[in-house]
Amino acid sequence: MKLKSLALATAAVLFAVPAFAEDLVLSIGARGYGPAVERNLERFAKANPDIKIEWNKVSDVPGETRKLYVTSLTAKSPTPDVYAVDVIWAGEFAKRGWLQPLNGLLPDTAIAAFNPSLVSAATVDGKVYALPLYADGIHFFYRSDLLQKYGLAVPKTWEEVVADSKVIADGEKNPQFYGFVSMWAKIEGLYMNWLAFANGNGGGMFDANGKLAVNQPANVKATQFMVDMLDKGVAPESILSMKPDDARTLFQQGRAAFLMVQDFVYAPLAAPDSPVAGKFDFTRVPYFDGHPDAKSTTMGGWFLGINPNSQHKEAAAKFLDFFTAYDQQLAAAVEDNRAPTIPAVYKDPTMAKAEVLAKFGADFDFGVVRPSAEAGSNYPKVSEIMQIEITNALHKQKTVEQALNDAQSQIEAVLAQ
Amino acid sequence: MTVLSSRLDQRRQAVAFGFVTPTLLVITLILVYPILQSILLSFGDSSIDGSEPWHFVGLKHYAELMADQRFWNALGVTLTFTGLSIPLELIFGVALALLMNEHFRGKGLARLAVLFPWALPTALNTLMWRWMYNTDYGLFNAVALQTGLAHRPIDWLGDATLAMLSMVVVSVWKTSSFMALIILAGLQSIPKELYEAGRMDGMTKWQEFRQITLPLLRGPILVALIVRSMDALRTFELPFNLTDGGPVTATESLSLYAYKVIFDFIEFNYGAAIVVAQFLVIFAMSLLYIFTLRNKD
Amino acid sequence: MKTRPRIGLYALVVLSVVISFLPIVWLILTSLKTTAGIYAWPPQYWPTPITLANYIKIITDSPELLLYVLNSFIVGVGCTALTLSIGGLAGYALARLNMRRAALLMVVILAVSMFPPVSLLPSLFQNFLNLGLLNTYTGLIIAHTGLFLPFTVWMLASYFSTLPAEIEEAARMDGMGLMRIFLTIVIPLSWPGFVATGLIVFIFSWNEFPLALVLMTQNAMRTAPVGISLYPGEYAFPWETISTATVIAIVPILVLTAIFQKQIVGGLTAGSGK
Hints:
heterotrimer; A: 417 residues; alpha/beta; D-Maltodextrin-Binding Protein, domain 2; 9-stranded mixed beta sheet; B: MetI-like fold; flat
């Protein structure tokens, strides 16, 4: 019965297209922005009865969705009209002509309200191609109960992390307990991790003059530190095949003192039936001795953009503006813990209700985006080269210097193309 | 008479052609046309944003391919994987088929169970295995540690050799049943009288197997080998979901590399060249099998 | 004397059944656990407590899963029917009608099926966009049919070539047309082969992922494997919902395999005995 009514309802949705209404297709996952999507769609429908939105749910796993986008956008398909892009795709998609420039379609004041560092990730040649919908970043989660048990302060520097890990691991006397876990499998997350280490030591992809400097001494030292963490047993060998959820699982099982991944882990870790509920907290990503101001929180997030082949660009712009606006961001923050991308939202009085999010926001003050706008359509290759060479260093296939030198020369070649 | 028969034959040819036409149309739309486009892509270049149309560049991408270490690595991985898994699948397939050909109670249920791994979607299957293999919280290490078989967790997917073997295990688990299916069918068509004759001659079970069963199974075995080798040489979902091609690129198959080039780097032309090269390898391997079959008959 | 080998036989059967079923049993057990149970260490081998909460949650939170299963069923049945009918005709012509260049055609059909499918997506999408076949059952049915036709033609052709020629000869003498011979004589005679091939094609279609992902972008048109791929988050992999959704989505396959398993083996028997 249920099935039949479902099929009927679907048929009704498919065929009941009101005349003269503009139909927009929105492509975004159901998990990333969570209940906020549905809620905002209802609000928009009330305010704009003449525009009908069809929500095509897509996978939140970037690889799956990318396959879909690459296929439909190269074919110049007119749908989706509005679609969500990972922060690292914005620059690349803009270069490929897969995103409509928003200057002109949206008032400049609307664009200016957003966090400039995030907007820079979608800015190519002075034009903005997508607006940030929500942000996330990596944080440093720790077992507050264990720190207390061993009389340790919350570590601020990597040197302290290593020392504290040893104290805790020695004290716990459990061969299946680890100091530090994170996502060091050969995935984008590894590159995010490496950037956190490198930036935390005053390094990064570029030197002070903006020239590519993957092999600068600060990076070599930071990378060597990662290798040493493995050697000292602070991080287990298995970290080299861990993805974010693998590391989260270990931490949740009470088998690690420190965890460095994105904010998504907060909800499952704090769930009532979680073994570590009430026993953990988080803080900004550590830095190296002497670099307390380092921007070490590698940021992620999703943007909304418009398909240049859309036949309803005006309506799409209206929708985009509404969906990313102050009120919607505030609601998503307070109700669903999604980090706003308009800085003013954090100062809103209602934000007092969202304590956890306020703490995430404080970490984002040390936020840094990946060099996706600079690399443009070459970003996937740049990231791949970095992932491979960092993995080579961690697996001791190459020395740290050699791996970073190789990365430098390969990326130079890619960017020169 | 000859006029009549040739006219009859002409009519029959026309009908036969009519029978084949729908198949050819669908295959042309779904396979042949995209394949031709891929081949064309591999001989050309077009600009990133599509503003500049395709233009011919000859063998440029194939020359790049010859100098691309990652391509050779992927080819090596693919051949190693195929070379390891196919013989194992064959051995287990034959064994399973012999077992399921015996008479015992609950045979129907047992056959269903043995068939089942093959009927599950590879992607989900593989994710399931990835979880069971997990070094720190996977089923295998939990059992190994609790029973004392291992004293420290085994890094199944983190070590280059173990990762390849782990991949082979999943493949063998999944597709031995498909091999068994085809071989079981062959077994059932062997006339019983042959075995009776063998018994009269005082053959042992092993001799029966070597001298009667195996030679008569050559046909089905070769069909199974071709079908499975084709799939193994194109393996994608297995490394994609199990190891991401890692550690580093130790389990990166040709299909996985092509996928990265096409959908991550968005280099359709170069990706097409990889795929065409891969096709040639598969075609060569099939010819080898067919040639072997012909030679012995 | 006779009992020992029997025990050994049963031991082997049980062993292979256990190994074949282990992952799926683990999947079913997982779907019956609480979230805490799933991530417990050391692992819970048996769910304590056993809960149906995950099933209830899926059915109430995302009833569209049932729609996805229905879509997969429609596409699977459509693809199987189309593949068997046109593939059957082609196989018959190639195997039995002394068609000119039949061998060459067979090789070409096999060769095109060897091409790695990953590279075909962009151009296939483009064609389907132009033809207006995106987000239609017809579109995906044709796409799957094209994908699995080579296998079908080969299977059925090898099956037909084992049929005794005399019956068809006699029918032709009686003045029957080739189409009628095919429909009234060849199909009934080779029915087990059709069932076996059909079931395999159905399973192929049910499990096919990339084309279903790209050619069906509307929610209402998604197939089961693509629907299940919507459950993981960007970083999180919620085994409680994924294991449950997978179990729901494979029930039809399990039932069908159970019903037709005799025919699969029976059908293939005749097919390979050439």
